[in-house]
Amino acid sequence: YNLSVRELRLKIKNNEYERLDTKTKEKLVKSEESKIEDFIKNPIIIKNSLGIEEISEKVLMRLILEDLSFFLKELGEGFCFVDSEYKIKVGAGYNYIDILLFNYIYNAFVIIELKITELKKEHIGQINLYMNYIDKKVKDISHNSTIGIIICLKDNYFVIEYASNPNIFRTVYRIKE
Questions:
Q1: What is the pTM of this model?
Q2: Residue pLDDT, tens place only, 147-169
């Protein structure tokens, strides 16, 4: 990955390899082609440099935007920031995508939804709506399908297991002081 010594030490210090699932570790050893879901770490570390005690979705987004470069490195390779609270018009009302990114390796938009609760089926429906909107109104014909990542406080394996869209992924977050 052409990492500098400093970047490699940081990856080792943050236990990035240990936070990958076993299938991904096997792919890395066997040099198989990787997919985006292989490199979504679980948990994602979010720095709390502000020392905030009460975490809401707005505060969580503020912590991420405060150290955006750290967050993008936590997500993996090739992520570029597009916008936060990206405004979309659905019907007569407006909705806001928490964080919109683009991954130049996978040539796809990536929607990040932040939740301070356990993963629920409503979250899947919400991010699916946003993904469909980006696919129809924003992405170019040369781009791949939009990817959705829900970052939540607590995982619910069964909700994501029965989600119909294979481009929706989930991970939990941990706050680091």
A1: 0.79
A2: 999 999 988 777 877 777 888 88
